[in-house]
Amino acid sequence: MLALLAAVLASFLLQPDRAEPARRSWSIDGTTREALVFVPPKPEHAPVVFAFHGHGGNALQAARSFRIHREWPDAIVVYMQGLPTPGMTDPEGKKNGWQRTTGDQGDRDLRFFDAVLASIQTDYKPDDRRVYAMGHSNGGAFTYLLWAARGDTFAAVAPSSAPAGLRLNLAPKPAMHVAGTKDQIVPFRWQSPTIERIKKLNGCDEKGQPWGDGCTMYPSKTGTPLVTMIHDGGHAFLADAPAMMVKFFKQHQRPARDDAKP
């Protein structure tokens, strides 16, 4: 994996139009975990976006496909690297992925996220009220898991091509969901109940309204709207999604905590 990310750095350095990523590593219970981190010139008080690749992906593929650092150059963007994990199309777990439920894989990925977030907060002093998560497919499912398990951390989330597990205990939060109606790996009929569940959870209006290219917003009186981006494609990550995700993230920040109360 170290060799892979070394090649990633070389690849980015050969392309001067791209910001140079920092390769970071953490030891989690004796296992080396890694991520590519894009840091803006002024990281203090900057927003933070965590991005999670799909099953079989990696940090480089995520950076090239998601392009969050390009859409939001003022943000700290963290492309996390998964570990070999069993999945629907990979029962032996030979490809990289993320835990699917709380307790799965010994919660290794939740602990990885905790360690990375703590490092980012210590090293760069970002805006803790503007922390976001997005991911595609298995990475989208992990984004939903983070919403359930670490929900107080995030101002908003944007999963793509993934359903939320029925056992996940979600609290109201601004969310964006991207889905393809011709998805043959995670069929839209699996994702549609998640969309309806979030609308109800967030207290959204039943009728949506246009919100940017290909998007519909379902307003919420509690400030927790849902935006859907439903396209007629398949399972591949939608090229137009990053710009809309960043637009959505920019409209939301986590309410301030009143830590002064006794």
Structure overview:
The chain is α/β, with parallel strands linked by helices. The chain has one domain: Alpha/Beta hydrolase fold, catalytic domain (Rossmann fold), CATH 3.40.50.1820. The protein has seven helices and twelve strands. The chain is globular. About 4% of the residues have low confidence.
Describe the secondary structure blueprint for this structure.
Layout lengths: L1 H12 L8 E7 L2 E8 L9 E5 L6 H8 L1 H4 L4 E5 L2 E2 L11 E2 L10 H17 L6 E6 L1 H12 L6 E5 L14 E6 L7 H14 L7 E2 L5 E3 L7 E6 L9 H10 L12
Parallel strand pairs: 3-4, 3-7, 7-8, 8-9, 9-12
Antiparallel strand pairs: 1-2, 2-4, 5-6, 10-11, 11-12
Main sheet: strands, sense, barrel: 10 strands, mixed
Query: What's the CATH H-level homologous superfamily?
Result: Alpha/Beta hydrolase fold, catalytic domain
Q: Give the spatial strand order of the biggest sheet.
A: 1-2-4-3-7-8-9-12-11-10
Low-confidence stretches are: 8-18
CATH top level label: Alpha Beta
- Taking all Cα atoms into account, the compactness measure Rg is 17 Å
**How large is the count of helical segments?**
7
* Extended strand count: 12
Instruction: Tell me the count of domains.
Output: 1
Strand content: 15-25%
Structural class: alpha/beta
What is the distance, rounded to the nearest whole angstrom, between the alpha carbons of the first and last residues? Answer: 47 Å
Tell me the series of helices and strands, N- to C-terminal.
Answer: HEEEHHEEEHEHEEHEEEH
Helicity level: 25-40%
> How would you state the average pLDDT, rounded?
91
Name given to the CATH architecture: 3-Layer(aba) Sandwich
